[in-house]
């Protein structure tokens, strides 16, 4: 073994000792259950190890071309890139995950010249998409990127995706090699090594789609024939006709704002999602206007009521009260927690003939209490009502295979990673390419912008490009 490999092995064992590498059952960013989890965030508490990692990187990159600058992928790789920069005297730039809303609005901080050649530094690569997000912002600022140095390649498609996008990945360690090192050092036994090996075999994921999955392979037009629910068929048709997968979350509190938003975003959306009980001046007359706008701009009205009671109560909530939801919203959401009574209650209510339900399996917010068994039970319930279910609200590409069912994914923002009340955001590309969204829900990113129409166009276009990329990669 070379001295470099010996140092690498000792470093791998140290990572295990500080719990940066763990074995058990962990959920990855895209919802896969993995037997091995690597979380390098803890390394900042071990300056000696951070120093060793930087030394390993510097030694490795000696064989490579020289670089003008380095940039760590936020956030975990930032301290790693900083130490590499300081020890090797290469200037560093930093990518902001969100542009400042004051001052210069720069996404790349630090000094650089157009055409500077940048080395990307990353801790762990799974799909490679985080590196690509950083590369996109660097390139948009005129910086050249062709190489990424990473500590660990999880061998799950990242190298291929990066290479298809013009980035050569250089990994100090592969997951297989890491397991070998840890076994030799008696940190793990043969059965753990075997588990990881099987996991890698079973999750050899297509980098763009992350799984062989019919729904994700087919175009919306092809999927139209599989849809059993009439609103799903109409939704797919609207999506194809208008080339949009954007659902605007109209979380505004006056009828005037709501109608204005429908008018402004209407040409660019497939779904207009309301929370009717937040509207302060609700009067049934205003629904006439909303329906007229929906017809004119060809979108579907969707009340995000999240029913969660016994069937009889849901039936009353759905079709009675001043809101009479069943008379104007073709789509509603429901929790599965109360079982089939909710769906029976909706199915048997008076109101519009064509109706569909999105069942909520997973939430976008941090700390949600839904676990895998809840998700499984929700999907099982949905399968029992193919004529009523339009889709599933979730954050995971692996839940839905049926091409006739729509994945609706909230928590989408181009400039923010979350709010102060546990909402979590992902970029449009991430929700489509990594999380498997068919329709993406965008709320405050549009409603709070100075120009909701222009913002809706922006989201519509990025989402549609990501969908086209997804089906083109099949
Ligand atoms: O898991 C969920 C389910 C529903 N939502 C709803 O989506 C929008 C998101 O609004 P943003 O302003 O984009 O955060 C909102 O109406 C929620 O009720 C969700 O966010 N997460």
TrEMBL record:
Q: Which GO terms describe its molecular function?
A: orotate phosphoribosyltransferase activity; orotidine-5'-phosphate decarboxylase activity
Report the residue ranges that make up the Orotidine 5'-phosphate decarboxylase domain in this protein: 245-459
Keywords (alphabetical) are: Decarboxylase, Glycosyltransferase, Lyase, Multifunctional enzyme, Pyrimidine biosynthesis, Transferase
Q: Which PROSITE patterns match?
A: OMPDECASE
Can you tell me which residues bind substrate? 251, 273, 364, 423, 443-444
The family line of this record is: In the C-terminal section; belongs to the OMP decarboxylase family.
Q: Could you identify this protein by its name?
A: Uridine 5'-monophosphate synthase
Q: Species lineage, top-down?
A: Eukaryota, Metazoa, Ecdysozoa, Arthropoda, Hexapoda
């Amino acid at each position: 073994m070379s001295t470099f490999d010996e140092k690498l092995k000792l470093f791998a064992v140290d990572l295990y000792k500080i719990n940066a590498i763990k074995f058990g059952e962990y959920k990855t960013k895209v919802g896969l259950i993995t037997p091995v989890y690597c979380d390098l965030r803890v390394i900042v508490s071990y300056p000696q190890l951070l120093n060793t990692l930087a030394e390993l990187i510097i030694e490795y990159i000696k064989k490579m071309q020289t670089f003008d600058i380095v940039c760590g992928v936020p956030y975990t790789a930032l301290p790693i890139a900083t130490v590499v920069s300081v020890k090797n005297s290469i200037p560093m730039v930093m990518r902001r995950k969100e542009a400042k809303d004051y001052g210069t609005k720069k996404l790349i901080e630090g000094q650089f010249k157009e055409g500077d050649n940048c080395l990307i530094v990353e801790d762990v690569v799974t799909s490679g998409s985080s590196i690509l997000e950083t590369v996109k912002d660097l390139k948009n600022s005129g910086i050249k990127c062709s190489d990424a140095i990473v500590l660990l390649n999880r061998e799950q498609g990242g190298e291929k995706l990066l290479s298809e996008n013009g980035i050569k990945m250089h990994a100090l360690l592969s997951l297989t090699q890491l397991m070998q090192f840890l076994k030799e050092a008696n940190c793990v036994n043969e059965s753990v090594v075997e588990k990881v090996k099987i996991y890698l075999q079973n999750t050899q994921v297509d980098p763009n789609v992350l799984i062989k999955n019919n729904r994700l392979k087919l175009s919306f037009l092809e999927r139209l024939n599989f849809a059993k629910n009439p609103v799903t068929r109409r939704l797919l048709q609207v999506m194809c006709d208008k080339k949009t997968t954007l659902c605007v979350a109209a979380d505004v509190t006056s009828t005037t704002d709501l109608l204005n938003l429908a008018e402004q975003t209407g040409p660019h959306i497939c779904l207009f999602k309301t929370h009717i009980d937040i509207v302060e001046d609700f009067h049934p007359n205003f629904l006439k206007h909303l329906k007229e706008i929906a017809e004119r701009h060809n979108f579907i009205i969707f009340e995000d009521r999240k029913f969660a009671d016994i069937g009889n109560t849901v039936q009353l909530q759905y079709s009675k009260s001043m809101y009479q939801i069943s008379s104007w919203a073709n789509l509603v959401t429901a929790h599965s927690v109360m079982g089939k009574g909710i769906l029976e209650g909706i199915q048997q209510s008076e109101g519009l003939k064509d109706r569909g339900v999105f069942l909520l399996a997973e939430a976008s917010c941090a700390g949600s209490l839904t676990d895998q068994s809840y998700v499984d039970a929700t999907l099982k319930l949905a399968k029992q009502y193919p004529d009523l279910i339009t889709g599933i609200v979730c954050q995971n590409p692996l839940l839905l295979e049926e091409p006739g069912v729509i994945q609706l994914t909230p928590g989408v923002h181009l400039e923010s990673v979350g709010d102060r009340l546990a909402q979590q955001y992902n970029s449009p590309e991430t929700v489509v390419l990594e999380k498997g969204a068919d329709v993406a829900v965008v709320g405050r990113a549009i409603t709070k912008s100075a120009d909701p129409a222009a913002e809706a166009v922006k989201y519509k276009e990025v989402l549609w490009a990501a969908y086209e990329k997804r089906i083109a990669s099949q």
